[in-house]
Amino acid sequence: MDFLSVCPLLIPQNKEKTMYDGFVSVCRLQQSPSLASFLVEFKSILEKCLQSNQASHPQPPPKFYSRLIAEIERLGWDRLVYIDPSFQKVHLKSTDAGERQHIIQVHLHPQHPREGPVCVTELPVAFDVRWSSHCDLEAVYHQFQQALAVYQEFWNLLDEIDQNTWVLEPEKPTRNATRRRIALGNNASLQIDVDPKHPRMLPECRFLGADHVINPLRENLNTRIDMWDLADTLLNNLQRLIDLKFPSPANTKKEDFSVECGICYAYRLESEIPDKACDDSRCGQPFHQTCLYEWLRALPTSRQSFNTIFGECPYCSKPITVKMPTSR
To answer: Can you tell me whether residue 297 is helix, strand or coil?
Structure first.
């Protein structure tokens, strides 16, 4: 019996679905001889539903718990960050060579170790556990440490960028984030996407901002691309090829680059920041792509060709174009 199909106005209050809040239709109450008999019948229905739910989520056998405790003992309690009341979700921590702390979430199967666990990490690529019935938590942990060692150079190079430039996006980079949007000044920025397995290679680059600002920078990169030095860092290579010293927290403030959208007057629109600017050098007003698209689409003087709208800048009335936003 599906409890929520019987009482669709109830909302589960916990993951185990043992507590609910909401409303229950009382049509049955009119057919019951008394309120007490209705509540007894209602309690019986709830118990049957909960028993059915527990049957569909079998609990581990007793030896599961003793084995898990023994595995944690061998691994070391100092590496344990969290274990849930069911003993099926275990979080372990590890510190890499760069003194960065990492967490691996291990979701154990009730038939552990016969069935392998599901692991969640913040590695830049998927973490696949090699598992057999002879494996344990220590085997998972060692594989996690080996994976951390693979991405040391990737994190070192991105840490240098995070510490010495103004990263506009992501606002708080996680260890699995391969993309950075770096402020260049003058309402211009550079978005790079780094290959975690080959972090010293030239990353995928995309310039954002007014054309009169970013076109010379893009041209510099394209004409000097053969000067890319694999022995140098990402930051040094990018600055040398673009021929621009990136703004740094040492001599600038982030507010200098966090310019509001000229339409909604906000810097961040959900996860979006202004990335479209007027090409007129006397204006240069930035806009969210979504805001500018909706603004131009509402004007009868604008025209659209496929996914691009052609119109006038809301500030200076100079020609401006914007593409239809795509979900990120």
So the answer is: helix
What is the spatial distance between Cα 294 and Cα 31, in angstroms, rounded to a whole number?
56
Start-to-end CA span in the chain (Å): 39
Cα angle vertex 296, ends 290, 301, to 5°?
170
**Residue 219, CA atoms < 13 Å, CB-side half-sphere:** 6
Say whether pLDDT at 64 is over 80: yes
pLDDT for res 328? 46
The structure tokens listed for 241 are: 């090829």
**Contact criterion met (CB below 8 Å) for 322 and 306:** no
Whole-angstrom Cα distance, residue 132 to residue 139? 10
pTM summary value: 0.72
CA atoms of 250 and 252, how far apart (whole Å): 6
Q: Is the dihedral of CA 224, 228, 234, 240 positive or negative?
A: negative
pLDDT value at position 142?
97
pLDDT band at 1 (very low <50, low <70, confident <90, very high): very low
Residue 223 tokens, joined: 């004409």
Q: 77: which 2 tokens?
A: 């309690």
